[in-house]
């Protein structure tokens, strides 16, 4: 790794670390906060997550096209940095009072802030990092590993801090955002012609019809079917902390233990991010996606069948294997199946957007199911849904194709 490559690797890894640190500090215990501090039940918490998902799914296509249009410029990341900085004051002085005074209005305003900042923003940052990694010749997974470490670092003490005062976590989120902005100021924009070896034209030449042309590709819809199935993992994790905390004698002990478990999972996930590129490069993107789907099925069905905190923890830790495979493979699949000028649009629409569409619908349903049938039965249903779409995807997804076969999206037909 030469000096310039190392510089970009360090800076982008740092951006991912502090983005995830901010996100985790404010959001990793959000279900506990809504339940224990705001007083919401399962269905009401489901409404909150649905609002977040709806706003995110409206924002993600916009972020994807804007980032593809910007190419290697960082204007969108600067906007996200300012939003991260406002996290602490927003949760303490705006979100909490609104939820107590008017649940629907609070859900809407919170959905706008959280959905646009974190759930849509992470896709923009990840796709920017992946694009730069291809140009500067370092593995995206090795940089994304630092995002996992950022989340784990925040959650390690989040449960303990939550029992003292949840507002401390929110202020830590804003402090982390200051460091994000400082690092971003040191990222010098690469020249547009740096993308010449990877793209079919300049990013500025992209038109809206180029992005809309994706809708005519069977391969795009095959990817959508797979993502619809695995998107259940976002809904699965939303209220898992409440279920886990209920396994302990007191809520305080459950809160602390969940913080430790979540931290351990994400530290293991960081190791997975480092190693996943080796496996994905060896077995291919398609097989890696299917393997991630199989692991997700095992985790969800296992969580429904497991009893006791120890076995439930073991199921939770499978996420540390599943997520790195999924993220690395999805980028590899996009890079080997589609026009790379549209990589941000493909990731934010084909993966993040579809995930939020599913989450916006399923959050309310699962919240109701938790209240009516319990967590274990709901997890079994989720696992069966993922198993079905993963099986279907065995036939719909395609393997990699050589770079020599690439053509601009609007001029090509999907290969068989």
Description:
This protein is mainly α. The protein has one domain: MFS general substrate transporter like domains (Growth Hormone, Chain: A), CATH 1.20.1250.20. 80% of the residues lie in helices and 0% in strands. It contains 19 helices and no strands. The chain has helices at residues 3-27, 30-38, 42-70, 75-85, 87-101, 103-119, 121-136, 140-164, 166-185, 208-212, 218-230, 232-238, 240-245, 251-283, 285-305, 309-317, 319-337, 343-373, 375-396. The radius of gyration is 20 Å and the shape is globular.
Q: How many helices does DSSP assign?
A: 19
Radius of gyration: 20 Å
The profile of the biggest β sheet is: none
Unreliable runs: 195-201, 402-416
Structural class: mainly alpha
The number of E-state strands comes to 0
Mean pLDDT: 82
Overall body shape: globular
Strand proportion: under 5%
Q: Percent range for helical residues?
A: over 70%
Supply the CATH superfamily name: MFS general substrate transporter like domains
What number of structural domains do the residues give?
1
CATH domain class name: Mainly Alpha
Annotated CATH architecture: Up-down Bundle
End-to-end distance:
37 Å
Tell me the series of helices and strands, N- to C-terminal. HHHHHHHHHHHHHHHHHHH
CATH topology: Growth Hormone, Chain: A
């Amino acid at each position: 790794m030469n000096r310039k490559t190392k510089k970009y690797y360090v800076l982008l890894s740092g951006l991912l670390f502090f983005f995830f640190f901010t996100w985790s500090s404010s959001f990793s215990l959000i279900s506990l906060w809504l339940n224990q501090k705001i007083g919401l039940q399962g269905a009401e918490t489901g409404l909150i997550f649905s609002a977040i998902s709806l706003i995110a799914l409206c924002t993600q296509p916009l972020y994807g096209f804007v980032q593809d249009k910007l190419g290697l410029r960082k204007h969108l990341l600067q906007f996200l940095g300012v939003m991260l900085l406002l996290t602490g004051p927003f949760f303490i002085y705006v979100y909490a009072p609104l939820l107590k005074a008017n649940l629907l209005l609070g859900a809407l305003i919170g959905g706008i802030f959280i959905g646009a900042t974190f759930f849509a923003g992470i896709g923009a940052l990840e796709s920017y990092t992946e694009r730069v990694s291809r140009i500067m010749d370092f593995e995206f997974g090795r940089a994304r590993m630092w995002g996992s470490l950022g989340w784990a670092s925040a959650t390690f003490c989040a449960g303990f801090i939550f029992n003292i005062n949840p507002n401390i976590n929110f202020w830590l989120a804003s402090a982390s955002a200051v460091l994000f902005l400082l690092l971003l100021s040191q990222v010098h924009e690469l020249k547009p012609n740096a993308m010449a070896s990877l793209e079919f034209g300049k990013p500025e030449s992209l038109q809206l019809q180029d992005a809309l042309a994706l809708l005519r590709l069977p391969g795009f819809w095959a990817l959508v079917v797979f993502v619809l199935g695995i998107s259940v993992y976002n809904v699965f994790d939303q209220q898992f902390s409440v279920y886990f905390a209920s396994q302990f004698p007191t809520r305080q002990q459950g809160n602390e233990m969940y913080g430790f478990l979540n931290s351990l999972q994400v530290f293991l996930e960081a190791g997975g991010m480092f190693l996943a590129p080796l496996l994905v490069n060896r077995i291919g993107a398609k097989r890696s996606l299917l393997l991630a789907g199989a692991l997700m099925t095992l985790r969800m069905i296992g969580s429904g069948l497991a009893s006791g905190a120890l076995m439930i923890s073991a199921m939770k830790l499978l996420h540390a294997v599943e997520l790195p495979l999924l993220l690395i493979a999805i980028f590899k699949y996009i890079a080997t199946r589609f026009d790379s000028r549209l990589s941000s649009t493909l990731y934010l629409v084909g993966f993040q957007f579809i995930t939020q569409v599913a989450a916006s619908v399923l959050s309310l349903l699962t919240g109701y199911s938790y209240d009516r049938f319990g967590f274990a039965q709901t997890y079994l249903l989720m696992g069966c849904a993922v198993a079905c779409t993963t099986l279907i995807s065995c036939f719909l997804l395609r393997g990699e194709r050589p770079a020599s076969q690439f053509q601009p999206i609007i001029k090509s037909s999907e290969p068989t």
